[in-house]
Please model this.
Amino acid sequence: MRILVLAKQVPDTRNVGKDAMKADGTVNRAALPAIFNPDDLCALEMALKAKDRLKNAEVFVITMGPARAAEIIRESIYRGADKGFLLTDRKFSGSDTLATSYAISQAVKYLQPDLIFCGLQAIDGDTAQVGPQIAEKLTFPQITYAEELIEIDNKSIVVKRRLERGVETVKSPLPALVTVHGSAHTCRARKAKRVMLYKHARTISEMQDDNVESFRATSLQSKRPYLLIEEWDAGFINADDKFLGLAGSPTKVKKIDNVVFAQKANKALTSSDTDIEQLIVELFESRVVG
Amino acid sequence: MNYYLDNEVLKLQLSHPLMEKIVKLKENNFEYAKEVPIAPVDFEDAIDSYHKVLEIVGEICGDIIAPNAESVDIEGVHVENGRVVYAQGTQENLKALTDAGLFGMSLPYKYNGLNFPMVPYVMAAELVSRADGGFANIWGLQDCAETIREFASEEIKSEFLPRINKGDTCSMDLTEPDAGSDLQAVQLKATFDEQTNCWRLNGIKRFITNGDAHIKLVLARSEEGTKDGRGLSYFVYDTNDNAVIIRRVENKMGIKGSPTCELVFKNAPAKLVGERRMGLIKYVMSLMNSARLGVGAQSVGISEAAYREAYKYAQKREQFGKAILNFPAVYEMLYNMRAKIDASRAILYETARCVDVYKLWQEVAKERQLTSEERAEMKHYNKLADALTPMLKLMSSEFCNQICYDAVQVHGGTGFMQDFPVERMYRDARITTIYEGTSQLQVVAAIRAVINETYAALIEVFEKEEVPQEFERIKFELNTMRAYYEHAKNLVSGMNSDEMLDLHARRLVEMAAYIIMTYLLMFDAMRCSCNCCSLKESARHFLRLGKAICLGHLDTIQYSSS
Model:
């Protein structure tokens, strides 16, 4: 059985400093470290759990992004994924969720998976649209907001979903696409030996970098073919250019506001019953609690 | 949280100039890479692997072990049907470390290990100890595997060593009710059973850390009628044989997650490790040395954790309208703590490097004859390791207790409550000056290096090192301290009394320790190019602490000799 994980490299927006946004309102990617999208790490864990429970399952990872996104593939392999593919092409740049899901679904068709896991959403755009759009394009049933893998066999999957006011357990036939919620189990740690075995894995573009690591990787690859990370471009996945990048993206950003939270007013309360009751009422009314 | 990445000074130890020699010897001049795909192809590649694997250790420490430490301390351990049950958190810790393939880090590739030298292995022990000082024992006892690797037959090695990487834990079963510091009095009986062609162990062991481990190394009396250490041999016992009962676990002051067991051996089948009669004299001594290095790492780890808690609290806690960190009485405590940690870490990794070099030459010597130069180097580092190990254990564990004491003090009344982790660390720290040889016994071992001038010779080598101008003042004062040390040594030897030597031994060892540790700390500071770490400040501050101690000790010795 082939399980596929869709993962994205994102700027770490959880620890945002003053220089996180550029003056023009776009994200200053240079100031934020590139990380594995947290929900996607949960998706990887769920995929690895599925693999643990099945016989003869393999976990593949696809990521779309610039050359440095190959780090996502290495990271996935360190944690237990079998193989990864980097979807990279200048034609992909500027893609909104529709263009992204088109490109990725084209790549997915090439791999013919039985099951796909992806994070619910990425912390840079927070749209939660790419997973469902891919499912639509592949005509796969989709389970969103997955929190826990309950059962898996070669024909079906049972998943617990985390919803706003409770949980729901659903069963779906395979193939299917599952988007994984951040409340799911966090990903297992890297495995020491896999790190030592695959740390020299590189894409062709990375090997062209002028540094000691790429030189070492190049000389090792002739003897160790498993160290090559495949790169796929738009042509390879038979993508139609008009659905890619800016051309394929109906979403237009009209304006971005840089919102800075500022303290407006202070309120001092005593520990008296009246003050506490007043606070409770106020919090309820402003819907902070309840 | 990543306990490796958030501590920049650790990388400095991985980049020490001696590492190149260590890695090259460890990797058989990078010949292993031809056969073993995880083996590094060159020096940088090896360091990169250490770095990446320590990053995993740091992540597990920060995300799993440290958050579990409180519940493990509360839950403790208990005995169920003669077996030890770990706290839930301990089980999670073990699973995470096993799944990540971190056990057996220092074992050769052929036994499923990562073939890491002592330096990164000790670093992992420091990280685990910072996360949970008690759990560090269960992790650290994989040292036993090192002893098996060094001294046991190939048959025993291939039976037991590959199990370490799969998560089997170890214990070293030495202490008995009447044999604590004096291990020559061990009575547990080993008899050779002709019928089953194996050794049988009968008797009681007490205070055995992780006593229900999968693999146990047992010191036992194999020579009937003998009374001293020469009648003792070393055995390996497989817990799967179900012939040892855990009678009880101790209720301890600290390190509550680490089970301390009383064991009854009932005709337990065991295999002889190495040669008969060499148990205590050779094998336990070797294991004890690595365990002392382990306690050094544990002390540094707990100290680092306590310091960070104290610093964080001092920044946040406000009294008299400002953070208490800004009061001289408080920040001086923090300065002292920082300096003691940095100095302890300096001697910790220096000792680890010395152990690495001499043990690696020992391994080479098993394959081929060493040149006279190589043999001299092996002997040199062996001597240094033997001299530095008790000094490290003594100083780092005593400092660890002082640091935890101060960390509670910085917290004030809050520190006395169980609401903050320093209360636990204070209790966990207490054992470090006691087990694997008390501080007093470390002095007995270290005083030899005072008398045979190993320390003096080392200091002389240090003195010859050129230092940049900003460190000249430190060096100048170290020369003065050395003069105090020489003078004190002469006064004590002039007393011509063994009792007086015993009485002043600790003072002499401490004087040597402050000088050597200040030098090592200064060298670390010199190698560090960053402007953010505390090493330079610490070197200056530790010098002040040391000089005051040396003056005081000299004064006491002078008084006693007059």
